[in-house]
Amino acid sequence: MLLASKQRLIEQFSGSPVYQKLVIGGAWAFSGKVLAMLTTLVVSALLSRLLAPDELGAYFLIFSMVSTAVFIAHAGLSWTALRLVAQSMGLREPGRAKQVILLTTRLAAIGTLLVAGFLAFGGVKAIAEHVFHSELIARASGMIAILVVLVSIQNFSIEIFRGFHDIRLAILFGNLGSNFFAMLFFWCLWQVNGRGSIPAVLEIHVFFSLILVILVVLLLAIRISKLPAVENSINVKEITSVSLGLWGTHLMLLVWSQADLWVVGSFQSSEGVALYGAAVRLMSIVNLPLIVTNTVLPPIISELHSQNKMMELEQVLRNSATVAALPSLLILVSLIVFNSPILGLLFGEFYRSAGLVLIVLSLGQLVNVWAGSCGLLLMYTGYQNTMMKITMVSAFMTVSGSLIAVQFFGLLGVSFSALIGMCLQNFLALFFGRRKLKIWTHARLDLRSVSF
Question: What is the pLDDT of residue 61?
Fold first, then answer.
C-alpha cells in the first residue's frame, strides 16, 4: 500500500518543472559538490605534505582573506543577480534578466577593483602584520590581490548560471575545476620535489583560475547575447535596495563562519591555525549534503515564492533537509569514532591532535543540516534584513565567545564557541521563517512522510 502510494506521488510530481529542476540540478550539484569536496580535501592533504605547518596555516588564512575580500567587493550583487535572474526567467521576462546581469556586472567590477587595489597597496601588509602577525602573508600581497580579481569574476559568473538553473556549468567552473587541476599539479610537485612554498602554491592557483575565468566569461557572454534587450525594466536603485540587504546578510554569515579561524590566527601560532584549519576542512564533509541542496534551491525558492506556491515550497525545503540529514548523521558518527586516524591519514601525524576539535565542529554542522535551508528561505523571499540581524547576533556571540575562550581553552574553546553560534543562528532562522512565511524547513523525523 505504501509503495503504491509512493509511486502515485512520484508519477504525479515527476512532470512538475520544479521536480525536474530539483532532480537534474540536484544530480549535478551532488556529483559536483562531492567531487569538489574530495578534491579540496586532497589538495589540503597534499599541501600538508608540501608545506610546513606554519606555511599551511598561512595558506588557510590567505584564502580566508580572499573569500572575505570577494564578499566585500560584490556587495551582495552576485546573489542579487541570481535572485533577480531566476525571478525574471520564471516570470518569462528574459530582457529584464539581461539588464539585471549587465547592471550588476558593472557595479561588481567597480567594487572588485577598489578592494583589490586596497589589498595590493598596503591592505594585505597591514592585516598580516597587525592581525595575523605573519610575514608569509605580508609577502604575498600582489598574488592575493590578483586572486581576489579572478575569484570575484569566477564566483559572479557562477551565480548568474545558477540563476539560469544551469547548475552543470556552475559546478564545472566553480571550485571543482580549479581544485581538480591544482590537485594534479600539486601531486606532481610532491612526487618530483617533495616540498613547496607559499609563492609557488599561489602561482599555481592563479594560473588555473585565470584559465577558468576566460572560459566561463566566454560562455556567459554567449548566453547573454541570446537574450532580448529591454530598456528601463530595472534600475540601479532597485538592484542596490536588494543587494545591500543580501550583502549585509552574507557578510555577517562570512564573519560568523570565518571568525573562529581569524581568532585562532590572531591568538594562536601558525601551527595552531594549521590544526584548526585541517579540522575545518574535514568537518565540512558533514555539511556536504546541505551544500548540495543549497546549490540548487535559491532559484527555486525565488520562483515558487514569486508564484505564491508556499505549500509546495515548504514540501521541497523539508524533504530536501530530510534527505540531507541522513548521510550527514552517518558521516558524523564516522568522524566521532575515527577522528584522529582520519586526520593522521589525510594530513599527517602532526594533525591527529585536532581530533576533539573536529568532533565539536562537526556537531555544529549536523545542527546546520537538520535545520535545512532556513537562512536561504529568508534571504530569497524578501526577508534578507531579518536574516542579517539574526546573523549579526550569532556572529557577535561567536566572536565574543571565541575571544574569551581562546585565552583559556585554546582551539577547543574556539570550537565550542563556533558550535554555540551555529545552533543559535539556525534556531533563530527557523523561528522567523515560520513566523514570517508560515514555513518550516527542518528535517522530518518520519521518513515515510518524505515525498516530492
Answer: 93
Using alpha carbons, select from 154, 192, 418, 172 the residue that is nearest to residue 283.
418
User: Burial, 16: exposed, middle or buried (Cβ in 10 Å; 0-12, 13-18, 19+)?
Assistant: middle
For cell 576542512, name the residue: 281
- The conformational region for residue 144 under phi > 0 = left, psi -120 to 50 = alpha, else beta, is alpha
Where do the domains of the chain lie?
2-449
C-alpha 71 chain-centroid distance:
11
Scored b (16 or more CB within 10 A) or e, 260-269 reads: bbbbbbbebe
Cell of 129: 602584520
Number of CB atoms found within 10 A of residue 231's CB: 6
- Rounded-to-integer distance, Cα 215 and Cα 208, Å: 11
Q: What is the mean pLDDT of the chain?
A: 84
Helix and strand numbers, DSSP H then E, in the chain: 18, 0
> Are the beta carbons of 324 and 288 closer than 8 angstroms?
no
Q: What is the pLDDT of residue 8?
A: 43
Q: Which residues, at least 6 apart from 306, have a Cβ–Cβ distance to it below 8 Å? A: 87, 90, 91
Cβ neighbours of residue 70 closer than 8 Å, sequence gap 6 or more: 112, 115, 148, 151, 152, 155
Q: Is the pTM here over 0.70, yes or no?
A: yes
Q: What angle do CA 330, 413, 360 make, to 5 degrees?
A: 5
Q: CA-based angle 329:331:337, to the nearest 5?
A: 105
Bigger pLDDT: 177 vs 217 = 217
pLDDT tens across 348-387, in order? Answer: 899 999 999 999 998 888 888 888 888 888 888 888 788 8
Distance CA 77, CA 241 (A): 10
- CA 412/CA 272 separation, integer angstroms: 11
Do 368 and 422 form a contact (C-beta atoms < 8 A)? Answer: yes
